[in-house]
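Researcher: Hi, I'm a grad student and pretty new to this. My advisor asked me to get structures for two proteins we've been looking at. I'm not sure of the right format, so I'll just paste the first sequence and hope you can take it from there.
Model: That works fine. Here's the first sequence with its structure tokens right after it:
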Amino acid sequence: MLERLSWKRLVLELILCCIPALILGAVVGYLPWFLLAAVTGLLIWHFWNLLRLSWWLWVDRSMTPPPGRGSWEPLLYGLHQMQMRNKKRRRELGSLIKRFRSGAESLPDAVILTTEEGTIFWCNGLAQQLLGLRWPDDSGQNILNLLRYPEFTQYLKKRDFSRPHNLVLNNGRHLEFRVMPYSDNQWLMVARDVTQMHQLEGARRNFFANVSHELRTPLTVLQGYLEMMQEQTLEGPPREKALSTMREQTHRMEGLVRQLLTLSRIEAAPTLTLNEIIDVPVMLRLVEHEAQTLSQKRHTLIFDVDNTLKVRGSEEELRSAVSNLVYNAVNHTPPGTEITVRWREVTGGAEFSVEDNGPGIAAAHIPRLTERFYRVDKARSRQTGGSGLGLAIVKHAVQHHESRLEICSEPGKGSRFLFVIPERLLARKESE
């Protein structure tokens, strides 16, 4: 519409410009010269408008075009509309790029955009954090110059990206790289930190290896006695010894499975409501009775309990924690040891502690005591039926009660295990 209108205006302008020349030429004479002057004036006017348009496009660059008349009016208006549309598209494109970068920054993975040659032209913040890249300083750099790992270089050069590539950085982090070609000669690299996954996989392997090792011994003993009883009839003391040993090994396996189930249950419940009111003094009276039975008067057991202190939390988990600490002290200290169990109010909450004057523990073992199946004296632990899971249960149980297990020990001077329930979880028992 505007194009046809512009041509009509051009023809109209030419006619209007020539009519005065025709009239003057008819009256005065010299018609060709008047026509030439009229056309020249029209050309000069168009040339002047062309200069104004050039100035607006290349020098002024303002959003408002210069005013135009005649055939120039629709042309300038059309250019102005085109410029407005381009500006709108640029804003939309800029907004799209901004949203893309914002989304890429929110990804839990490192994202790097490169050419097929490896030249970086964008990366997100996590890529800078995990890989040590700097943006925009590293724009235009080749990623192989920044990540100097021969196996990674070979992975990119082979260009077989059907499988991810696992890379171990110099700082010990494990990264999983995936490369996806897109667009024209461009790559999208995604790096995921799988360090924790590798650690968990290693812990899982160690866990099953330890469990199989712990179960192998009692199963071997049971299998041996069963084969012996199958081959020959046992009577008298040999039969009683065999049955007693088999019962001991069965109890040992039962205890191990029970401890494993307890630990799994505690780990599977990372958060607790902590609304259950626990009568700790009553709980400790039961634990004291069980500890006396376990000790068989070989130890001196002292229970110093504040009967006014209750707490909020999980009774099952807290009982597992306190009973494991008390039973460990009975099982892993020699006869004649004095064991003191305290439940008292301290600054900041209520403290539970188990202290003994036994042989103590070397400092090198203390950081690893809460690991699964870790034992200071493996031979003695197996003799006493220890599973190596007690302190791991204690650690997780007290963590659920917003506390942590503290271990103080010195060889020849005894040991002390304690944790403090925070004050906000106290629920006092009314004095009778």
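Researcher: Oh nice, that was easy. Here's the second one.
Model: And its structure:
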Amino acid sequence: MTSREQIVESIRDLYAARARGDVDACMEKFSSDACFVWAGSPQHCPVAHEANGASAVKAAFKGMSDAYEVLSYEHRDFIVEGERAAVLTDLTIRFTPTGETFSTQFYDLWTFRNGEVASFVQFGDTALAAGHAAQLGLQGGAP
């Protein structure tokens, strides 16, 4: 069983790696069969999706790192119960294609197994993400 301290440390390490744009360091914490979900409706927000397995999760993180630079972040709340955690985080982010800088929040749900991330579900501003996706030529629609 992963301890509360290990979970909090892992999540802090993952956010620090993400802020550096270090996708490989992020992936060191994920299990080979991990799942990442950007919660939302893919019909309305093309970035909303599910990635299953380490290679798909890595590709999703690479895409996010290419599109968004994390300028600063602050964890506002950690709730850890067993091997699950809920984390509310304030972020300042730059949308790299346009240079637009904005503040937002993410609410993340994490599940750990044997010290590794088994599942990561991220809730963010899907309207904002859909607008950025449109600027990149991505469109929502039925899969």
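Researcher: Is there anything I should tell my advisor about the second?
Model: You could mention this: The helical segments are 4-20, 23-27, 54-67, 126-135.
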